[in-house]
Amino acid sequence: MPGGRRGLSRQQLSRSTVPVPSISPSQTATLRARNGGGHSPTSPPLAALITIIPIKHTPFPDIPMENNIVFESILLIYLLLALFLQYVNIYKTVWWMPFAATNTALNFYLIDIHLVVFICVILARRLVWKFFTEAFVSYGYNTLTFWIVQPIKVVLLLTLLGSLTWTLLPLYSNNSILNLLFLCYPFGIYLLLYGIGNDQMYINSEDNPATQPYPSPQSTAKSNGEPRHREDSKPTSRDAGQLMSTNLWPDFPQHQCLLCPQSIRDEVEVMKADFNNRIKEILFNSMLCAYYVGFIPVCFVQKYLHYDVWWSCQHILFVWINTFVMLMAQYIPPSYCDTLHRCAMHLGKWQKVDGYTNTPQHTWTELTTWPCGVLIRHNRNLFKAVGPQNVAIPSDASHTRFYMLFSNPLCLLNCLALLEITVVCYQLFLLLFTVYKWDHILSVSLMLFVNYYVLFKLLRDRFILGKVYATSVEASQNLK
After folding, report:
1. Strand 375-378 vs strand 361-363: parallel, antiparallel, or unpaired?
2. At what angle do helices 261-290 and 334-347 cross, to 10 degrees?
3. Within 195-299, where are the H helices?
4. What's the Cα-to-Cα distance from 103 to each of 94, 97, 106, 109, 246, rounded to whole Å?
5. Which long-range contacts (CB under 8 A, 24 or more apart) does 399-405 make?
6. Distance in angstroms (rounded) separating the CA atoms of residues 404 and 398
7. What's the rounded Cα separation, in Å, for the pair 40 and 42?
8. Confidence of residue 130 (pLDDT cuts 50, 70, 90)
9. Confidence check: pLDDT of 117 > 60
10. Where are the alpha helices (DSSP H) in 106-143?
């Protein structure tokens, strides 16, 4: 139109548009890496959310512990004492009465001496094995001590075999098939659990893959800097031998602060296998001791003999609990719990989040170490990182249980101390208010002395480690 203002044509508009610079493929990959890999552009970079704080472990103090031979000797003395008290509960007499039929405290003529010897041999098997495998093993063939100890071991072995032969023949001829099955029942359970010649607590740690330490972080990477696969990151015997030479307790696995997430998960699998084997061994051996100390004497009681069944059953329970606590304190000591705690801190934990949130989310990847507080998506579920660093698989319940059990290094020690305090308080209650028979007073009093010793060790470790970990927490808070 004349005098009017003309608009720009389409060609002029296209020429006046601001040009968009082209992006090379390398720049595109860089932008994707900054935005968290293949995630949506709305997700901010992971490093911009929370910085992963390096984990600093608390130095573990030097707490004295008995070696295995001393501990097995103490355990054997306790079990023999418990066996004696069970026979007192069963075969006691009223010898102080004026018209009593006997002048002895026990009916010794009713006690089967062959059964007593058989039980003692079964209870002494652990001490004998420790003596064979650990006593004087550092002496070489060219020393006089070696040639003196070897005949002693042979004589001890022949004595045990001769004692078993001497006891089994009379037991077989004088007892019923049912009683003989009671004697052999634990051996059948042992074969079902472990097979022939496979006792995890007795074999050498170099032959047990669950107790081998984990390789160093340098061995978890290839020459090109990429992390190794799961099958390549298994510990080797060479790595195990290098670390076991400096370990005070060679049958305990070692922890190393690994950097590769897959290597940390493999280390957790090693720790879980070792812990499960130890728990299985402790439960089996504690129940075996209670079985032969408390249950077998009851099974071989004469039918016409009357005794306090409830007190005998209660004695069996005391023996099982005390043996379990003693074995736990020796084979899962605080130093071992600290090792599992350090491994759990590197593993971390994921907590499932229900509902919708506007917080930026990421897709979980197995080669990423996630900081605390990050939200991730895994198997269509939303999880939040709880640990100081998190490499656990969100859907793996065993990783969650491992972190919950060992995130607090004093958890097992607190449970054992609480269990032992409960037993001591109950026995004191029996001794002060309900016990009036001489055999009951003797039984509870002697058992209390052993429980005091076990409780002292547990409380000593608890107070020392409580101070150490509390000081470490205060120091870390002051640094923040």
Report:
1. parallel
2. 150
3. 237-244, 261-290, 296-299
4. 8, 9, 9, 13, 60
5. 399/265, 399/268, 399/347, 399/349, 400/349, 400/350, 402/268, 402/271, 402/272, 402/340, 402/344, 402/347, 403/344, 403/347, 403/348, 403/349, 404/349, 405/340, 405/344
6. 10
7. 5
8. confident
9. yes
10. 113-123, 125-134
Any idea what the Cα angle at residue 67 is, between residues 461 and 328, rounded to 5°? Answer: 50
CA distance 102 to 94: 8
Q: What's the burial of 199, exposed, middle or buried (CB within 10 Å: 0-12/13-18/19+)?
A: middle
CB atoms near residue 101 (< 10 Å) = 9
Amino acid at 51: T
Highest mean pLDDT among 16-20, 58-62, 101-105, 166-170: 166-170
Q: Contact at 8 Å (CB) between 212 and 253? A: yes
Angle, in degrees to the nearest 10, between helices 125-134 and 68-91:
170
Q: Are 376 and 364 in contact (CB under 8 A)?
A: yes
Q: Is pTM beyond 0.85 here?
A: no
- At 309, which amino acid appears? V
Q: Is 382 helix (H, G, I), strand (E, B) or coil?
A: strand
Alpha carbons 175 and 437: distance in angstroms, whole number: 32
What is the structure's pLDDT at 37? Answer: 44
- Per-residue pLDDT tens over the stretch 222-245: 333 433 333 334 443 333 333 333
CA distances from 400 to 350, 392, 407 (A): 7, 8, 10
∠ Cα 46 52 54 (to 5°): 160
User: Residue 51 contacts by C-beta under 8 Å, 6 or more apart in sequence?
Assistant: 371
Which class for 20: exposed (0-12), middle (13-18), buried (19 or more C-beta within 10 A)?
exposed
Q: Are strands 350-353 and 361-363 parallel, antiparallel or unpaired?
A: unpaired
Q: Which two tokens stand for residue 12?
A: 């002029």
Query: Which of these, 85, 73, 129, lies nearest to 290 by C-alpha position?
Result: 85
